[in-house]
Design a protein that fits this description.
The protein is α+β, with helices and mostly antiparallel strands. The protein is about 25% helix and about 35% strand. It contains 4 helices and 13 strands. The strands form 3 sheets. Strands 1-3-2-6-5-4 form a 6-stranded mixed barrel. A 4-stranded mixed β-sheet has the order 10-7-9-12, with no helix packed on it.
């Protein structure tokens, strides 16, 4: 599992003035909760980039006041006008205490439906799961080799070991849909068959039509 180290400083002053001072120094305030006590700290904005600007899941070793806290990122805030990072929340990982995190889905295999000319469409890219810190991983692998044309793979199809998936089981994760080209090919292939079937159908219907028009025999 990927882990980054963040060197932080313990915050002793709070309020708007103290926060403005931090931002003038290009630092961002953060908080660590979930452990024995809440830790308020700050660190340079650049120290948070590897964990903020990535779709990957990773653990952070936050070092504050001589101690290291193993954490996961739970929430962050950006300035609505400038998009500047202004605050982060970290959850401390405590042994034997389950945490809820969002893990990316890693698709493996080449879908049978794609080989048949379809297109893979991804509906969701991550799952919310509840698990112990020792069971944390970078992603959840999902084999889609047998995913056929016009079929879905759903949350309930994920084989998750040592974790509880919090998403609704019926939510589709991915599907293989027909491409426009494949639809056109099927329509083109079906046209001659329809044309050939039309005369045969008309010929078969002719005797019945003639019988219907013939006058009834007199008794």
């Amino acid at each position: 599992m990927k882990t980054i180290t963040i060197e932080g400083q313990l915050r002793t002053e709070f309020g708007k003035a103290a926060t403005r001072q931090l931002r003038s120094e290009e630092k961002v305030p953060g908080v660590i909760y979930g452990g024995a006590k809440e830790i308020n700290f700050s660190a340079p904005a650049t120290a948070f980039k590897p964990i903020v600007y990535t779709p990957e899941f990773m653990v952070a070793d936050v070092k504050v006041d001589g101690k290291t806290y193993k954490c996961v990122l739970k929430d962050l805030q950006f300035n609505k006008v400038t998009d500047q990072l202004i605050h982060l929340d970290f959850l401390e990982l405590v042994e034997n205490k389950k945490v809820t995190v969002t893990l990316p889905i890693k698709f493996t295999g080449s879908p049978a439906g794609v080989k048949a000319g379809g297109k893979l469409v991804t509906k969701i890219k991550a799952l919310n799961v509840k698990l112990l810190p020792k069971d944390l991983r970078e992603n959840i692998e999902l084999d889609i080799t047998n995913l056929a044309l016009n079929e879905n793979v759903r949350v309930q199809d994920v084989k998750a070991v040592n974790m509880e998936i919090m998403n609704s089981p019926r939510i589709p994760i991915a599907s293989v849909t027909m491409t426009r080209q494949l639809k056109q090919e099927e329509a083109t292939a079906a046209a001659p068959k329809a044309a050939a079937a039309a005369p045969a159908a008309a010929k078969a219907a002719a005797p019945a039509a003639a019988a219907a028009k013939a006058p009834a025999a007199k008794k």
